[in-house]
Design a protein that fits this description.
Length: 495
């Protein structure tokens, strides 16, 4: 099986190939300003080598997930897993030699860096018998290996930079070949960029980046201006896996597409200013009208069919008196308001005890609740979806009867908490009121209806910024959560 892939063509039409075997030993650096065609180049490289070598893609923008449909890559949503799960996934990828795309587009930059670092470290720490060759492609590498501290936290920068340095400096012996792409060489850590022996340089405008690119390509500084004149999708290549001398290459076509595309021009609306103003501001405070329900036209039968249906009593309607009597009978059999409320609370408590109930949508839960109420003859006319969500949140926290005077202050305080955050808030508050430790992140994640502890951390940050809770972590790492408005605090517990 040939290990050479066609990456594109030279200006005169000659094919330009990349030797994958050599690339695995010498690594690749791709550089070019936004719009120069870096992602297109990486996509061409991945598509052409998909059947030759295992591929691992660190994708901060979610642009490479389309590889799954055409080439069978497994897409891993970084926002859906905790650190331990990401580490286990990284270990299994080395074990089973799966080609994957780690999509990080749902995470903030700090979380992207930490998730990528955990993932790369798991690949790096695989046992020796699993050191199979693999291309590790990192798009927007300047985010994960920044040359200087920026707006991200120092902890995130440190762990991410260490993981990227391991990949480029020590990954070769473990079968990991780094392919990194960056918009700005000046923003990429030098010890990471310096480990690449192959280069593909695209269009660059800033002098400092042009000079560094020219130096890496072995060009004289006066020739650096040519890098500014490169067309979109045109790169200068050099390295043992590409060419011994700088060669210009126009990247070939690809089969898959990116999620983000360059916007094109579209015709502007022909409406006048007054018409546009009316469209924007007319009935701004009024909700859209509901679609009216149209009854189907009555069926028209022939005389014989109509007589047969009448004989079978299919068309007989109850009289108005009969209908009213039936309605009064239903009202007599319905339980009273207090009895109905107690029965509803009992149903909510039973639903809250079911496994994985928090992972169902609120609409599904409300429908299930109404069906259970009707089966017991309980009317739900006075209960809407919002009231149900707040009552169900109390049931999840083990507050069996919200009408108990013990919970009065908590229920009043909870009016300032959004519906989706109410259940974890109730759980924390009840632990504080009972003098118990705060539930750990995994328990709160389950109550919150997620498998990502990171979302729980963001929830706690939101509640703390809103003044509802105060989170304290002592020097021994024990966490406690206080509710200032209630004057209670959970017992310290490991964070």
């Amino acid at each position: 099986m040939s290990a050479n892939i066609l990456i594109g063509t030279a200006p005169r039409g000659e094919p330009v190939e990349i030797d994958i075997k050599e690339l695995l030993a010498t690594r690749l650096l791709v550089q070019g300003n936004s719009g120069s065609g870096k992602s297109h180049l990486l996509r061409r490289l991945l598509e052409e080598s998909a059947s030759i070598v295992q591929q691992v893609v660190i994708d901060p923008e979610g642009d490479f997930v389309s590889l799954a449909e055409e080439f069978g890559h497994v897409v891993i949503d970084g926002s859906a897993y905790g650190e331990a799960e990401i580490a286990r996934l990284g270990a299994r990828i080395r074990q089973h030699r799966a080609s994957v795309v780690l999509a990080l587009d749902e995470l903030e930059i700090d979380q992207q860096m930490k998730c990528a670092a955990q993932f790369l470290n798991a690949l790096f720490d695989a046992p020796r018998e699993q050191w199979y060759p693999a291309l590790v492609v990192v798009d927007e590498a300047q985010m994960f290996a920044p040359a200087a501290a920026g707006e991200v936290s120092e902890e995130a920068r440190r762990v991410s930079l260490a993981a990227m340095t391991n990949l480029m400096c020590r990954g070769r012996k473990r079968g990991l070949a780094g392919v990194i792409a960056t918009q700005r060489l000046a923003k990429l850590a030098k010890n990471v960029a310096a480990e690449a022996s192959n280069f593909l340089m695209g269009r660059t405008f800033l002098d400092i980046d042009m000079v560094r690119a020219a130096d890496l390509l072995g060009m004289e500084r006066r020739q650096a201006e040519t890098i500014r004149d490169l067309a979109r999708g045109q790169f200068l290549g050099l390295g043992p896996a590409i060419s011994r001398k700088p060669v210009s290459v126009n990247i070939g076509a690809v089969k898959t597409g990116a999620k983000s595309v360059t916007p094109g021009l579209a015709p502007l609306p022909t409406a006048t200013t007054e018409e546009l103003r009316e469209l924007l501001y007319d009935n701004l405070h009024v909700e859209p009208e509901r679609t009216e329900f149209h009854r189907p036209a009555p069926r028209v039968d022939d005389a014989e069919t109509l007589a047969r249906r009448i004989a079978a009593n299919e068309l007989l309607e109850p009289t108005t008196a009969q209908a009213r009597e039936r309605e009064r009978e239903r009202e007599r059999n319905e339980p009273g308001a207090e009895e109905s409320r107690a029965a509803m609370i009992e149903i909510m408590n039973a639903m809250a005890e079911e496994d994985d109930c928090t992972f169902q949508s609120s609409t599904t839960l409300f429908q299930d609740f109404t069906i259970r109420c009707r089966m017991k003859g309980i009317s739900v006319r006075g209960l809407d979806a919002t009231m149900f969500r707040r009552g169900f949140a109390a049931a999840l926290a083990g507050i069996e009867n919200p009408d108990d005077p013990r919970w009065e202050d908590l229920i009043n305080l909870s009016k300032h908490v959004p519906d989706d955050a109410l259940a974890p808030f109730y759980v924390i508050a009840r632990a504080a009121m009972d003098g118990k430790p705060c539930p750990d992140d995994m328990d709160l994640a389950r109550i919150y209806g997620t498998s990502s502890p990171r979302r729980v951390q963001r929830l706690l940050d939101y509640l703390e910024k809103d003044g509802l809770i105060v989170v304290r972590t002592d020097f021994s790492g024990k966490r406690s959560v206080a509710l200032p408005d209630l004057g209670v605090t959970t017992r310290p517990e490991e964070a």
